[in-house]
């Protein structure tokens, strides 16, 4: 479940940007293959930059839970 919470926002940004670019390509009949990559890469990097603090918080909470369970085993 944690993997889905961490990866879904970034994947959705890539999906939405890809669909928008594909729609624009279909409407304008410009079929340049490299036109999709640059906006998608930039948007994914921006999404990672914005959402990274939340991802770190989720992973830190998960690690604390794992560490507490490990301490409880002794």
Describe this structure in words.
This protein is mainly alpha-helical. It has one domain. 91% of the residues lie in helices and 0% in strands. The chain is built from two helices and no strands. It has helices spanning 2-28, 34-73. Helix 1 packs antiparallel against helix 2 (34-73). The longest helix has 40 residues, at 34-73. It starts with a helix and ends with a helix. The model has no long low-confidence stretch (mean pLDDT 91).
Distance between the termini: 27 Å
Count, helices:
2
Topology as H/E string? HH
The mean pLDDT is 91
Q: Which parts are unreliable, with pLDDT below 50 for 5 consecutive residues or more?
A: none
Count of individual beta strands: 0
The Rg value, from CA coordinates, equals 18 Å
Percentage of residues in helical conformation: over 70%
Structural class: mainly alpha
Beta content comes to under 5%
Shape: rod-shaped
- List the domain count as a whole number: 1
The description of the largest β-sheet is: none
Label this structure with key terms.
single chain; 74 residues; mainly alpha; rod-shaped
Helix and strand topology:
Elements: H1 2-28, H2 34-73
Helix pairs in contact: 1-2
Give a short summary of the structure.
By secondary structure, the protein is mainly alpha-helical. The chain has helices spanning 2-28, 34-73. The model has no long low-confidence stretch (mean pLDDT 91).
């Amino acid at each position: 479940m944690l993997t889905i919470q961490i990866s879904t926002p970034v994947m959705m940004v890539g999906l939405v940007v890809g669909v928008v670019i594909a729609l624009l390509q279909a409407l304008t009949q410009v079929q340049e293959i490299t036109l999709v990559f640059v906006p998608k890469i930039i948007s994914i990097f921006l999404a990672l930059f914005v959402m990274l603090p939340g991802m770190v918080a989720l992973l830190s909470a998960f690690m604390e839970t794992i560490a507490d369970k490990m301490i409880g085993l002794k």
